[in-house]
User: What shape does this take?
Amino acid sequence: MFKSPRLRRPLVALAVAATALTAMVPAAQAGSRIPKAATKAETKVNIKGDNGDYYGYVKSSDAGNCANDRKVKVFKQLGSVQDPKSDLKIGTDTAEPNGDRYMWSIGNSGYKHGHFYAKVGKTSVCKGDTSKTIDR
Assistant: This one.
C-alpha cells in the first residue's frame, strides 16, 4: 500500500506503539484496585384487588430510589407460568408515597377473571421483582 519508506516507517512505529499500549491496559487494570459495583437494593412488589381493580405496594431497603416513583406493570397471565413477554399487559402505574409505604393502583382494568401479577423492572441501583400470581 505504502511503497515509500518515508511513509511506511512512521506507520509501522505507530502500529507497534498501539499494540504495546493495548497489551499494557489489562496488566494495569489487574494491578489496580477498581471497586466492584455496589450491590443493588432488594425490591419487592405485591398485588391485591378484585373485580378488575388492582393495586399493591412496592417495598425496598432503599425506598427513596427503589420504591418511590417506581413503574409497576400489571399482567394477565395467559399460560400456566408468568411470562411478561407473552402475557397480556393490562395496566401500569407509578408507586407513590401512601403513609409510610409506596402504593400503586391501575384502577379498574376491566379484567375481572383470570390470573394476574405485578412486575417492577430492575434499575441501575435496584433489583427487579415479580409478585405472586393472584387468581380472581
Remarks:
- The radius of gyration is 26 Å.
- The helical segments are 5-31, 63-66.
- The mean pLDDT is 86.
